[in-house]
Write a structure and sequence with these properties.
heterodimer, A: mainly alpha, B: alpha/beta, 4-stranded antiparallel β-sheet, 11 helices, 27% strand
C-alpha cells in the first residue's frame, strides 16, 4: 500500500496539469481581485454615487480568503482531478498495477488519498494567495467576524466533498473528457433542479439549494456565519462526501477495468 | 477427442482449475486447466478471440474470473505471489507524456528496482539512449521494448507476455527471442507467452497450450509436438474421395483431405507402393511426395480450421 501511495504521489508531483491548473486557479483569483478593484474604483466615483447612491464595500484579505472556494476553484479542480484520476485508465497503466497484486480497493484508496492531498494543496495555496492579494490590492486584512476558523474548515470540507464527487465520477467513467463534462455540468444541473424544486414547493421556510454544496458555500463565505449554519454545512458536506465516496468505492469494486 | 496432458510431475508456477470467464454475451474462457511448469517457456496458441488474453488477465488479476481457481507458485495467496510476476498484456501500459526512465521509475515503486537497474534494463532492451524523448513519441517497437523493460522490473520469476514481438522489426524480434532464452537459461525465469507467430514461438517454446473458443484443447511439450509433426505423404489426384477409400481398404487410415490434396500421416517409407496402389485402382495421381508436416499445420488441425 505504501508503494502504491508513493507511485500516486510521484504521479501527482510530476503532473504538469497539477501545476498548470494551480497556476490557472491563482490567475483567476488575481483577475477576480483586479476586476473587483476596478469595479470599486468605478463605484467610488462621483458619477456612480450620484446615479445609484450605493455604497460598495471593499473586499478585504479575510473576505477574499473566505471566497477562495469560488466556482472557478471547483471547476479547475474538476478538470484537474478528472485528468489525474483517469490517466491510469486512459493510458492502460492500471493493468501494470493490478498485475502486481494490488486490489481494486487498494488502488481506489491510494488514488483517493492523493486526490484529497491535491485538493488540500489547491485550497491552501489559493487561500494564501487570496489572502495576500486581498492585502496587496485592497490594503485591508479586515474583520475576522464570527466563527472564522470553523467556517474555513467547513468550506474546506465542502471542497473535499466536491473533490470526492469529481473523483467518483472519474473513477467510474474512466474517460477524461466525459469525466470533465459530467463533473462540471452535473452540479450545475443539480443546482438548477433544486431551484426548480424550490419553485415547485413554493415555501418560505425551505430552500432546497441550501442543502446542496453550492448553496452551503454561499452561506459559509459570508462574513459572520451562525453556529447553526456551520453545523448544517458540516453535515451536508459530510453526507455528500461519504455518499459519493461509497458510491465510487462500490462501482469501482464491481468494475472490471 | 480433446486431449489435455498435465505435467503433474514438474513443479508448477501456474496451475488453473476450471478457470472460466463469462462476459455478458460470450464465454471467453471455458473451464481452463492450465499447467505451466517451473523453467518452461509455455506458448499459448490460439486464433484471435480464442481467449488467450482473457486467460492471461485472469491469471494476473487484471480481471476477475467468473469461476475456477488459480494457483501461482503452488500457492493460492495470489496477492503475494503476483509480486513475483512481470507482465506485458496487449499494448504496453505506459505513461505517454513521460520519458522511458520516468515510466520505469514509477513502476519500480511497485515492482522494485534501483535507478541503476532501470538504466541497465533500458540499455538491455535498446532504449538506453532515448534521453528525454517522451514515450508517446516512441515507435510501436520502442513502446513494446519499454513494456518489456517494465515487465522485467523487480527480477520476476515468471513473465507473462501477450504477443511480445508485436510491432518489432526482424532484428528486434531476434533480440527479444535472445532475451527470453537468456532469462530462461541463466536466471531460470519461466515464461507464459502468447503469439500468433508460430515459427517464432517454435524457436523458443518448451511447452504449448492450444486454446480454441475459450477451451484449452491440448497441452503438449515441444518434444511431443515434434513427434506428432512427423512427415507424411501428400497426394494430389483427380478423385481424392476414391483415393481415401482405397487407402482405407489397404490399412492406411490416418489421413486428412484438405482442399485439393490428401495428407497421409503414415507410410512415409512406402510412397512408391502407395502410388502404385492408387494408380492400379484407377486413381489418376498428378503429384505424390513426402511432406514435412510443420507446426503450423498441426496447430491449424488442432484448432479445427
Amino acid at each position: 500500500m505504501k508503494n502504491l501511495l508513493s507511485l500516486e504521489f510521484r504521479r501527482l508531483l510530476r503532473a504538469k496539469s497539477f501545476y498548470i491548473c494551480l497556476a490557472i486557479a491563482m490567475i483567476m483569483i488575481l483577475i477576480s481581485a483586479a476586476t473587483n478593484k476596478m469595479l470599486l474604483n468605478i463605484a467610488s466615483s462621483e458619477e456612480f454615487g450620484e446615479a445609484f447612491g450605493a455604497v460598495i464595500q471593499a473586499p478585504t484579505s479575510i473576505s477574499m480568503l473566505k471566497s477562495t472556494a469560488s466556482s472557478s476553484l471547483t471547476v479547475i479542480l474538476a478538470i484537474f482531478l478528472s485528468i489525474f484520476v483517469t490517466e491510469d485508465y486512459t493510458s492502460d497503466t492500471i493493468k501494470n498495477v493490478y498485475a502486481k497484486g494490488f486490489s481494486r480497493e487498494e488502488v481506489f484508496f491510494a488514488k483517493y488519498v492523493s486526490t484529497v492531498a491535491a485538493t488540500f494543496v489547491f485550497f491552501a495555496v489559493c487561500s494564501l494567495f487570496s489572502f495576500a492579494m486581498g492585502k496587496a490590492i485592497f490594503g485591508e486584512i479586515g474583520n475576522a467576524g464570527e466563527n472564522l476558523v470553523p467556517s474555513l474548515f467547513a468550506i474546506l470540507l465542502t471542497v473535499f466533498a466536491y473533490a470526492t464527487i469529481y473523483f467518483t465520477v472519474a473513477v467510474c467513467i474512466k474517460k477524461t473528457g466525459a469525466a470533465i463534462a459530467i463533473s462540471i455540468i452535473g452540479p450545475i444541473v443539480l443546482t438548477l433542479l433544486l431551484s426548480l424544486g424550490n419553485a415547485a414547493i413554493n415555501s418560505e421556510k425551505i430552500n432546497l439549494t441550501d442543502y446542496w454544496l453550492d448553496g452551503r458555500l454561499s452561506i459559509l463565505q459570508q462574513a459572520n456565519v451562525a453556529g447553526k449554519e456551520l453545523l448544517i454545512g458540516f453535515v451536508v458536506s459530510g453526507v455528500a462526501l461519504l455518499a459519493a465516496g461509497a458510491i465510487g468505492f462500490l462501482i469501482n469494486r464491481a468494475s472490471e477495468k | 477427442m480433446q486431449e489435455v496432458k498435465t505435467q503433474q510431475t514438474r513443479e508448477l508456477v501456474i496451475e488453473t482449475q476450471a478457470l472460466s470467464k463469462r462476459f455478458p454475451n460470450k464465454l471467453a474462457v471455458n473451464a481452463m486447466d492450465m499447467h505451466v511448469a517451473k523453467g518452461a517457456i509455455y506458448g499459448l496458441i490460439g486464433k484471435n478471440g480464442a481467449g488467450k488474453t482473457t486467460a492471461m488477465k485472469m491469471i494476473l488479476g487484471i480481471i476477475p474470473a467468473t469461476s475456477g481457481e488459480v494457483a501461482l507458485f503452488g500457492s493460492k495467496d495470489l496477492k503475494s505471489q503476483r509480486t513475483r510476476i512481470g507482465s506485458l498484456i496487449e499494448n504496453p501500459g505506459i505513461y505517454k507524456n513521460c520519458t522511458a526512465f520516468e515510466n520505469m521509475k514509477r513502476f519500480s515503486m511497485i515492482a522494485g528496482g534501483t535507478d541503476e537497474e532501470i538504466r541497465s534494463l533500458l540499455a538491455f532492451v535498446g532504449l538506453g539512449n532515448v534521453g528525454s524523448k517522451k514515450a508517446g513519441d516512441f515507435s510501436l517497437g520502442m513502446k513494446q521494448r519499454l513494456g518489456i523493460a517494465i515487465s522485467l522490473l523487480g527480477n520476476p520469476e515468471l513473465l507473462v507476455l501477450d504477443e511480445p514481438i508485436n510491432g518489432l522489426d526482424p532484428a528486434g524480434i531476434k533480440e527479444i527471442r535472445d532475451l527470453i532464452l537468456k532469462l530462461n537459461g541463466e536466471r531460470g525465469v519461466t515464461f507464459l507467452i502468447s503469439s500468433h507467430l508460430l515459427d517464432e514461438l517454435g524457436k523458443i517454446a518448451t511447452d504449448y497450450g492450444i486454446i480454441n473458443d475459450g477451451k484449452l484443447v491440448e497441452e503438449i511439450s515441444a518434444g511431443e509436438l515434434a513427434e506428432r509433426c512427423r512427415d507424411g505423404v501428400r497426394v494430389i489426384a483427380d478423385d481424392l474421395e476414391k483415393a481415401a477409400a482405397i487407402l482405407s481398404q489397404n490399412g492406411f487410415t490416418d489421413y486428412v483431405i484438405k482442399k485439393k490434396s490428401l495428407l497421409l500421416h503414415e507410410g512415409v517409407d512406402r510412397s512408391a507402393d502407395i502410388n502404385e496402389l492408387l494408380v492400379k485402382n484407377g486413381v489418376r495421381v498428378s503429384e505424390l511426395y513426402v511432406h514435412n508436416n510443420g507446426f503450423e499445420e498441426y496447430f491449424i488441425k488442432r484448432l479445427g480450421r
